[in-house]
Design goal:
Blueprint (H helix, E strand, L loop, with lengths): L3 H7 L5 H101 L10 H4 L3
């Protein structure tokens, strides 16, 4: 077994330029790490921006659909109101028609009653007709 002082003497001395290469590689790795970190943050920001744009487009489309449905609903309500007004007019005209038919029946009945009356008024019955023999 070799003692510790013997080991130090057995290893050759490292040239000075190796230390500089190690320092340079370490600095290069740090710079690459920072660049990758910056790129990942930039991509995260871009992804967030794209998500906001997509959400805005979806909201816009939903608003367009809602607006279209609202317009359809308004036109349906307008048509229903027109139908209700028309139904009210029909009801009023039907009531007026019934009233006119009733008046016409009354006039016809009065006209028939006048023509059915005898021209000579009926004579009162005689006293003798009521007696029984």
């Amino acid at each position: 077994m070799v003692s510790t002082p013997d080991r130090n003497q057995a290893l050759p001395a490292v040239p000075e330029w190796v230390n500089w290469v190690q320092t340079g590689l370490t600095a290069l790795l740090v710079v690459l790490f920072l660049v990758m970190l910056g790129k990942s943050r930039q991509q995260s920001a871009n992804i967030r921006l794209l998500q906001e744009r997509v959400q805005g487009l979806e909201n816009s489309r939903a608003l367009d659909r809602t607006t279209g449905l609202e317009q359809q609903l308004r036109s349906a309500v307008d048509r229903l109101q027109v139908l209700e007004r028309s139904a009210a007019r029909v009801d009023a005209l039907s009531a007026e028609n019934s009233s006119l038919n009733q008046q016409l029946r009354q006039l016809r009945a009065a006209a028939q009653a006048r023509t059915a009356e005898p021209a000579i008024p009926a004579l009162p019955p005689l006293k003798g007709d009521n007696e029984t023999p």
